[in-house]
Each structure stands twice: as C-alpha cells, then as structure tokens.
Design a protein that fits this description.
seven-stranded antiparallel β-sheet, Ntn_hydrolases_N, 540 residues, 18% strand, Serum Albumin, Chain A, Domain 1, globular, 19 strands, alpha+beta, 17 helices
C-alpha cells in the first residue's frame, strides 16, 4: 500500500509534543519559538520568525519583500497571496525604450539597466510594491493571538544591538558585495553600500552586524500595524527616493496595495494531497509534475521524475501570470490532460518548450502549535539583495520581483502597470485523505517546484521523516537537457546520460535549494531543517 507514512524515525528528525519552528537561520527559529513559549500560536510564531529573518538573513529577504503563506487552522487550509503589483507607471514600452537607450540618461534614473529579451534584474524597473509588511498584518489580524508589536521585539533587538553573522549568510553576502554590487551606478544604489557593507566589504562569519535604521523602521511598522509602510512615513521615504532617482513607485501604488486570501490548489499523489497556492506563483509546476507521476503503476524512476518536472515548468512558464490575466490553470490539473502529458515521456530525455528558468534569494519557514495549527510561509527579495535599491534612513532594500515579467507582448505575464508578476516563491502543505500531515517548502528559485516534488516522493514513497527527506541527495534540472545531481546520486548519472540527459555532478550545494518541514504525528510533531545552509528545527 502506498503512503503508509510509517516514518522510520531514527533520530534524524526531532520530536516535539507542544510545537515547533523550522527555518534557515537559528536566531529566527529562536524568535518563533519565543512566541510559542509566550502563549502564541503557530501564526504568531511564523510572523515573529519571518520578521526576524529580514534582519538576520538580509541576503535573501527584507522588509521590502513579498510573502505567501498557507495556514492550517486546525480544520482546513487557507492561502494568503501577499505579493505586490507593479507601479502604475511601468509599461512594456518604457522598458523597451530604456533598453534601446532612447530615454535620455537620468530621465528615468541614473542607472540604465541593460534589457534584451528579458526584464532587468537591478535598479528601479523590476521593483514592485512590497507585500511582506501587509502580509504580516493580515495573517495576524485573522489568526494571531499575541499583540502584533510583541512579534517584532526579537527582530528589533537583533537590528539594534547586532547579531553574529552565520556561515551561509556570510558566504551569500560576500558574493553580493564582490559580484552583485560592483558595476551598479546611480544614486538609487548609494545607500546599499552604506547600509550593507563594512567599508566596502561583507561582514565575516561570526562578525557582529547591526542595522539601527532598520530597527526604527520595524518599530514604526509594529506600532502602526503596517500602515506607516503604505500610507505613512515609510511610504513617503520610498516615494521620495523614487522621485529623486527615477523610480516609478508613487503614493497611489503603495496605498492601493492589498493582500488576497485565496483558495489553495491540490493534486493527489498516492493517497495524499499536495497543496500549493494558485498563480501568480509557480506552485502549479510541482502539482503538474506530481499529477503526471501519480499515473505510473510502479515507483517512477529518476528519468521519469525529471521529465515530469520539465512538463510542469513548460506549462507554468506558458500560463502563470497575474490571475486577472493568466491562462486556464485549473485545466492543467485535469486528469485527462495530465494523462496526455504523461504520454509524452519516453525512454529518452525530451525538451518541452519551457521558458528560461529563473534563480532567486528566498527564506522559507514552517511552524506548528499544540492545538494543531500549522503555517507554511515563504518571503523573498529575489536574487540576493533584490534590486539593490535601499531607502535612505530606513535600513531596508526593495525587492526585484518584476524580473519575473516577460517582454513578449502576447504573453499573459507581459510586463505592464498594476500587475503581479510570475513568482518563484511557493509554500506547500501535505495532507492525507484531507487530514493534515504538515507544512514544507524548499527555497531556491527554479529549484522550488523540483524540491517540492522530491520532498513529496521521499515522504510518501519512502516513508522518510522530515530530516531524512531533507538530507536526501537532490537533482536539479535547469533547461534543455541539462541536469545537475549531488554526489549521492552520481551512481545514476550514467543511466541518465544513456537516456540523453546532459548530467553534471555538482560539488556545491547552492543550486539544490534549502528546505524545512514539520509533520504531525500522533500527539506531537517531527521537524527537520536544511543541512545545506544554517537551518535549524526546534520546539518543546
């Protein structure tokens, strides 16, 4: 029988009867756990950890990020899309004009990003309205129990008094200083160097880092329930910088922002249901892949798993966009359609017309409490420090999620005003026959749906507990026939090559993402955290 969920727990995952927190930075785990111990619930813990992550892992997320979440309230699953829209002044023609150099230097900002067939990655053009502060507020308003401001205390303390930079964060920070920031010219980038470098270098492992400007911003958000970010002093600072340096965000863009509660999507896999948020996120790519794999009589091999992921991405890149203009995503999970897609998989590696994959910088966390509530939450700058545009005196940077738009005029995800772009960040949740198993996620841009598929297969097909599933060697498909595998899968590389895959055994773990998971078992939880970064799972 498939999916016995036996969890052969041999000390790899930790068992907690009262609640758990898992994420990619131990200080953020401590903040979430502190909320639980103070009488808060899983949502309080998730918010406290998420806010702390903006301080202690700024290489991947910030106050200027977007956020998505799935919340199991003890009876059913709720979805929150807290992603922002593009400025009303952003048009395709404007992007193309700037790329062609037809706009006079300085008219739209000193930094003229190079744009070819895709959106730029840095500067003002890819900046969309940050949704994270509103997401924290809206999660708390619906499910929180502790005072909203109390959930910011640890983060404010880390920002004000400093904290020791952890190893994986230090490595990512150094890459951004050495490779990402050089070559960015314009007044909009000046503040990044002041705030996020120490005399031009990144902080080293264990070196104490503080950001007092960010502490003041967090206090303002906490005391105003987030309103200062969208209609108050922080909004004024963002718009002031935009107007001085050629940015497109205006008061109406920020004041008009709103999160959206949405119905999650699911697909069945061997007696279980895997849940994702609907577009504008790419979670449907994972659901398509799992729906394709569910049709095999026996366990699908590595070749079939890779091909199913390719099919998922081919459709995601074609149809995922702002749901107001996107394609027919519901039909992509139809059983007959999935069977037809499954029929395309043969003995040889195929190419199914997927778009150019995207990479990202993201944080994921999950929480659980003694009353059975669980949260799967993800937030992100995108691409390390995002746009590298930092608001003077506020201590935080703005995301570059608009990079997810495309320039093809006939695509539903074409860049335009007031639109949500294709998003790589996706939280996930697993149930069995409608009963909760728990939250999970894997960070890392294009890796995320692939990581979700691999976590689901390890859990359902192999019965692994969260830590054992996260420890499994991973594979990563980039584009075309190119596949990377971790050394633990090197023994299968020759068979994949025989089938036409171009396989490379990668020594670095960075491309394979970073995940967390919490499963509910009996009267408690087992939790695991990513071994490839600074992750930690803790509870009581």
């Amino acid at each position: 029988m498939w999916g016995l969920m036996r969890y052969d727990i041999q000390g790899s995952s930790k068992f907690f009867p009262n609640g758990a927190v898992a994420t990619s930075q131990p200080l953020a785990v401590a903040a979430g756990l502190g909320a639980l111990r103070s009488g808060g619930n899983a949502v309080d813990a998730a918010i406290a950890a998420a806010v702390a992550l903006t301080v202690v892992q700024p290489t991947s997320n910030d106050i200027g990020s977007d956020l998505f979440a799935l919340v199991w309230d003890g009876e059913r699953l709720h979805g929150l899309n807290a992603s922002g829209r593009s400025p009303r002044l952003l048009t395709r023609d404007l992007v193309l004009d700037r790329a062609a150099g037809t706009v006079a230097s300085g008219a739209l900002g000193g930094h003229q990003a190079t744009v070819g067939s895709s959106m730029p990655e840095r500067g003002w053009l890819p900046v969309t309205v940050p949704g994270a502060p509103a997401g924290w507020r809206d999660l708390h308003a619906r499910f929180g129990s502790l005072p909203f401001a109390a959930l910011f205390e640890d983060a404010i303390g880390y920002a004000e008094r400093g904290y020791p930079v952890s190893p994986a964060v230090a490595r990512a920070w150094a890459r951004s200083v050495e490779r990402g920031y050089p070559g960015l010219h314009g007044d909009e980038f000046t503040e990044w160097g002041r705030v996020f470098t120490l005399g031009g270098r990144a902080p080293r492992v264990g070196e104490r880092w503080s950001n007092p400007d960010m502490a003041r911003t967090l206090r303002s958000i906490a005391s105003t329930q987030g309103s200062s970010f969208y209609t108050g002093e922080i909004a004024e600072a963002i718009v002031g910088l935009a107007e001085r340096t050629g940015g497109l965000l205006r008061e109406a863009d920020l004041a008009g922002h709103a999160s959206e509660w949405v119905a999650p999507l699911s697909v069945s896999y061997r007696g279980h249901e895997v849940w994702e948020l609907p577009p504008n996120g790419q979670g449907i790519a994972a659901l398509i892949a799992l729906g394709v794999l569910d049709g095999y009589e026996g366990l699908p091999g590595l070749h079939e798993r890779i091909e199913a992921v390719k099919l998922g991405f081919a459709d995601a890149h074609a149809y995922v966009a702002d749901p107001l203009v996107g394609g027919p995503v519901d039909g992509l999970l139809d059983g007959e359609y999935l069977a037809r897609r499954r029929g395309l998989i043969g003995e040889r590696a195929g190419e199914y017309g997927a778009g150019e994959p995207q990479r990202g910088g993201t944080v994921y966390l999950c929480t659980a409490d003694r009353d059975g509530r669980m949260v799967s939450l993800i937030q992100s700058n995108y691409m390390s420090f995002g746009s590298f545009v930092v608001v003077p005196g506020a201590g935080f940077g703005l995301q570059n999620r608009g990079t997810g738009f495309v320039l093809a005029a006939d695509h539903p995800n074409v860049v335009g005003p007031g639109k949500r772009p294709y998003h790589t960040i996706i939280p996930s949740f697993l149930t069995r026959g409608g009963a909760p198993v728990g939250p999970f996620g894997v960070m890392g841009g294009h890796m995320q749906p692939q990581g979700h598929v691999q976590m689901a297969l390890a859990t359902v097909d192999e019965g692994l507990d969260p830590q054992a599933a996260l420890d499994r060697p991973r594979w990563y498909w980039h584009s075309g026939l190119d596949v990377q595998v971790e050394p633990g899968l090197a023994g299968q590389a020759d068979e994949l090559r025989r089938r036409g895959h171009r396989v490379r055994v990668a020594e670095s773990p960075e491309v394979f993402g970073a995940g967390q998971a919490i499963w509910q078992i009996g009267a408690g939880y087992v939790a695991g955290s990513e071994p490839r970064v600074d992750g930690m799972a803790a509870g009581y």
